[in-house]
Design brief:
With 216 residues, the protein is α/β, with parallel strands linked by helices. The chain contains seven helices and seven strands, in the order H-H-H-E-H-E-E-H-E-H-E-H-E-E. A seven-stranded mixed beta sheet has the order 3-2-1-4-5-7-6, with helices on both faces. It binds S-adenosylmethionine.
Length: 216
């Protein structure tokens, strides 16, 4: 997540007044980001019925770029006690009951191995989530390139661990590779949608790629 300078008054004011921030505080979510995932899941169910829910009881879910833990909180709640959430981030994450939390750089092979090990004995996931975002430097082209690198790492991971028929939600930035990344996803999933949840700030270049029905 981008680091904010304390002097960044506009951001602080906006954050303070943000309805999703207020709601997260009230409902016990660690981040406003939780509502992006809830919204994506709700829309899916609205369109295809309850059976199409992204998060279902007993699932194994991997949450890449999970700090401070909003998405993992949502996942743990919806998959119940028989499910498993494996969360990883560069930053520390306070424990979340029902999840395995790992700290490290997902681009590092040793960390990738730890995430894969946490999926044993099956070694597979039903859903891969990635909300990974680089620390924004303000230089658009390099920020976009770093964002693309993270999304590519998520795609590689999907090809290693996702169950056939599984699903993914991957954060994509609207940079030069955006259309290519969407095109690539269409070769990996039966259904692909690009979504911009209302909880995602309009000025942010982030979008989410929703992939359903992974084709091995
Ligand atoms: C927008 S935040 C995620 C918010 C989270 N989904 C939630 O609901 O609380 C993006 C996260 O990506 C993480 N991140 C960026 N690069 C990463 C990397 N190479 N490996 C692991 N995490 C990374 C950042 O540390 C940051 O916490």
């Amino acid at each position: 997540m981008a680091k904010r300078r304390p002097s960044s008054g506009r951001w602080l004011q906006e954050h303070h007044d943000d309805p999703y921030v207020l709601r997260a505080r009230k409902e016990g979510y660690r981040s406003r980001a939780a509502y992006k995932l809830l919204e994506i899941d709700a829309e899916l169910q609205q369109k295809y019925g309850k059976k199409a829910a992204l998060l279902r009881s007993g699932m194994t879910v991997v949450d890449l770029g999970a700090a401070p833990g909003g998405w993992s909180q949502v996942a743990v709640k919806l998959i119940g006690k028989t499910g498993r959430v494996v969360a990883v981030d560069l930053l520390p994450i306070e424990p979340i009951n029902g999840s395995v939390i790992l700290q490290g750089d997902f681009l590092d092979d040793a960390v990738l191995q730890q995430v894969t090990n946490a999926l044993e004995p099956k070694g597979r996931a039903d859903l891969v989530l990635s909300d990974m975002a680089p620390n924004m430097s303000g230089f658009k082209s390099s920020d976009m390139a770093r964002g693309e690198l993270l999304a590519e790492a998520a795609y590689d991971f999907i090809s290693q661990v996702l169950e056939p028929g599984g699903a993914a939600v991957i954060k994509l930035f609207q940079g030069s590779e955006f259309h290519e990344m969407v095109k690539q996803a269409r070769t990996m999933f039966e259904k692909v949608k690009v979504v911009k949840p209302q909880a995602s700030r309009a000025r942010s270049a982030e979008h989410y790629l929703l992939g359903l029905g992974y084709i091995k």
